[in-house]
Amino acid sequence: MSTSQKASRKNTDIKFLDIGHLPLYNEDLKAPDEPLEVQQLRKELQEADAILISTCQYNFSISPALKNAIDWPSVGVNEW
C-alpha cells in the first residue's frame, strides 16, 4: 500500500477494492440480475484510469478470490 502511494503523483487517488465479499462467479447471472457487489465492481473498474493488481502466489497461481474478481467483469454485459 505505501509503495503505491509513494510512487503515485500528488493528484492521484488510489482505491483499494475488497474482493473477498464477491459472490462466486455464476455465468447464468447476467446484467441486470448480477449481484449488487458485482455491479459496484464493474462501476469501479470502468471509472478507473488504471488498474494495478498485486497478489501473492497461491498454489503456483493467483488466489481463488482474485480469479473470481477477474471472472465477473471479464464477461461482457451485452454479449448477444
Question: What report would you give on this structure?
Answer:
The protein has helices at 2-7, 36-47, 64-74. The protein has 80 residues and is mainly alpha-helical. The protein has one domain. The mean pLDDT is 85.
The helix/strand series, from N terminus to C terminus, equals HHH
Number of strands: 0
**Class based on secondary structure composition and strand pairing:** mainly alpha
Which stretches are poorly predicted, pLDDT < 50 over at least 5 residues? none
Count of helix runs: 3
Rg from Cα: 14 Å
Domains (count):
1
**Strand fraction:** under 5%
Kindly state the percentage of residues in helix.
25-40%
Largest sheet: none
Shape: globular
The separation of the N and C termini measures 39 Å
Mean pLDDT value? 85
Short overview:
With 80 residues, the protein is mainly alpha-helical.
Write the layout of secondary structure elements.
Layout: H1 2-7, H2 36-47, H3 64-74
